[in-house]
Here is the input.
Amino acid sequence: MFHDLNVPWTDATRELQRTVAFLDLLGYDVVALTHTYSGKLPSDISSPVPATLPFPVPPRMRILRRCNIFLTDSASNFRIPHLQQHYDLVAARPTDDRTLQQACMSLDVDIISLDLTRRFESHFKFPTLGMAISRGIKIEICYSQGIMSSDPAAKRNLITNATQLIRVTRGRGLIFSSEAKSVLGIRAPSDIINLASVWGLGTERGKDGLTKEPRSVVEFARLKRQSFKGIVDIVYGGEKPVQTSTAGAKDKQGGQKGKANKNQNGKRPGENMDGTPLHETKVDKPVSKRQQAKNKKPKVQDVGGDEKQSS
Here is the structure.
């Protein structure tokens, strides 16, 4: 299953419908519609992405709701858990090294999305990003920013930062998303895998960035919201059948089994025509010659005794 976890939400229903339909045509199965919060979070948090979209969705496609937060002030980050009640995924976009370190170390987010079209103050460090990966947070690379940009510096920064991210993280915990605002910024999964190979990521790891890694972050986010402490999940196993119907079925099966064990005459295979079991039937066995000789001796003695008495 191919994932694109960053498609910006827009009120232009027709353009968004074209984007979703084109993603389905390219073979994507899971798409996340993203709403971005810039600045402080509002007092009344609600998702502008409706649960039911105003246009028909392809039957095999799964739509998720996601929000992006620009990390500028650490004082407003305590309200991030409230966003998890309204969105399936919560992503943080750091603006400097301090907020990047905070997102990797302590923030309860699902994805860290970096703006790779700009130049960062310092190089990425493995201890910082490795801590985020060990906590189950994925690092997102958005390719549409460099494709649709007309600034050569933005494309150069995207290639440089993506190559550095792949080298520092050793290809682990990376996901690829489009962040495409129109259909022109979307690419097929095979094109993204080839692009990742050019940046230094292998073909298998590039495919994992569209299938395995996004699926793990989606399921991990679902478990955090629906299970007990992200460990125990309650699964509906069905209802217990009624006992009376079960007993009747057993009796019926027993009757059919008894009928199946009888032959055409209505008797079981181990019975005679009289209904007597074969092992209880008395059959006259042939008498041996020795037994016949023993039986003759008493008769001869009886005959001799009678003759003496008569004389």
